[in-house]
Design a protein that fits this description.
- The protein is an alpha/beta fold.
- The chain has 2 domains: about 1-145 and about 275-305, Rossmann fold (3-Layer(aba) Sandwich); about 150-270, Response regulator (Rossmann fold), CATH 3.40.50.
- About 45% of the residues lie in helices and about 20% in strands.
- The radius of gyration is 20 Å and the shape is elongated.
Length: about 325
């Protein structure tokens, strides 16, 4: 956990340093790339994700990517589909349109990875982010930005165990997503009495009903672990009308979850810092295109886990309201 936080902290310093000069009209000549991209070629970068309809998490990814694109004079083309086959097709479309770089999520690595590999083989700089930390190297991708989800799950389980233990319900809202499954598997490693519950994250009323029924059926549940901010809010609604004393713990953050952490309705959030993921995916491709840089030495650059709880929420809530956390 400490290694992940240290790397994420170093990344934040680097991010701040890059952002501070973002809009300046400077030309580096032979000494390096043009800062802000204002004096050089405008590159086109495609970002292809597995975003599902209605998931506010991706607003922060896009905000980070758009900010980097603005600072670096990049033409950003964003597309998404939470169907693995359709996402792979979007990657192929990006290759066919001869973009200069591709940033892709590998939540469904077996289906989307081969399409990303074709981009690498075509000579298109390609980075993975958000999902696929264990798979990106298989497809020739040299850079990855995201959280170690197994580590994040383990640290969440450790924190819950230290607070009293019991039984956890881990709610998986997207079947087959390797990142979500890794989170629950990590929780189970340090909090063994953990049961997974599959729900359809695109149907929040159904999610609410399913969690409600489970809480009424099993009063021994002491923690409901959700893997996305909208699901956490649905879990809070699910508790209403039941006698359950289960605490809500969630991965990821939005403005409403931040408020609920402030008022104690949600115990804590494990934040993977999606704004940073989007920003670094675009920035790293631009640096590769303009200066031949590779970041991370082939290893993943970790953006999390970063814990948000009562101890730091007063500072972070402002950023959540700005859609950057």
């Amino acid at each position: 956990m400490m290694r992940a936080l240290a790397v994420a902290g170093a990344l934040s310093v680097a991010l701040a340093a890059c952002s501070s000069s973002g809009g300046a009209n400077q030309t580096a000549g032979n000494s390096g790339p043009a800062v802000g991209g204002a004096g050089g070629k405008q590159y086109t970068i495609a970002m292809v994700t597995h975003e599902a309809p209605g998931d506010s998490f991706w607003d922060k990814v896009r905000a980070g990517a758009q900010e980097a694109a603005k600072e670096l004079n990049v033409n950003l083309k964003y597309s998404n589909n939470n169907d693995a086959g359709q996402q792979a097709t979007l990657v192929q479309n990006a290759i066919d349109s001869k973009v200069d770089g591709i940033a892709v999520t590998l939540a469904y690595a077996n289906q989307v990875g081969p399409a990303a590999q074709k981009a690498v083989q075509a000579g298109i700089p390609t980075v993975a982010f958000n999902s696929g930390i264990s798979d990106y190297q298989k497809y020739g991708i040299s850079m990855y930005f995201g959280s170690d989800e197994d580590l994040a799950g383990q640290t969440a389980g450790t924190k819950m165990m230290a607070a009293g233990g019991g039984k956890a319900l881990c709610v998986v809202q997207e079947q087959g997503s390797v990142a979500l499954e890794a989170r629950c598997a990590g929780v189970k490693k340090t909090f063994p009495n953990t049961e997974n519950l599959q729900v359809n994250g695109t149907d929040l009323p159904s999610v609410q009903q399913t969690i409600n029924a489970k809480l009424q059926q099993d009063p021994s549940i002491t923690y409901v672990v959700t893997l996305g901010a909208p699901i956490a809010l649905a879990a809070l609604q699910s508790k209403q009308g039941t006698s359950s004393k289960a605490q809500i713990v969630t991965f990821d953050l939005n403005a409403d979850v931040a408020k609920d952490i402030q008022n104690g309705s949600i115990a804590f959030s494990i934040d993977q810092q999606p704004y940073v993921q989007g920003y670094m995916a675009v920035q790293s491709l631009w640096l590769n295109l303009t200066n031949g840089n590779d970041i991370g030495g082939g290893k993943p650059v970790l953006t999390g886990p970063s814990f948000v709880d009562k101890s730091n929420i007063d500072k972070i809530v402002t950023y959540a309201n700005n859609n950057t956390r």
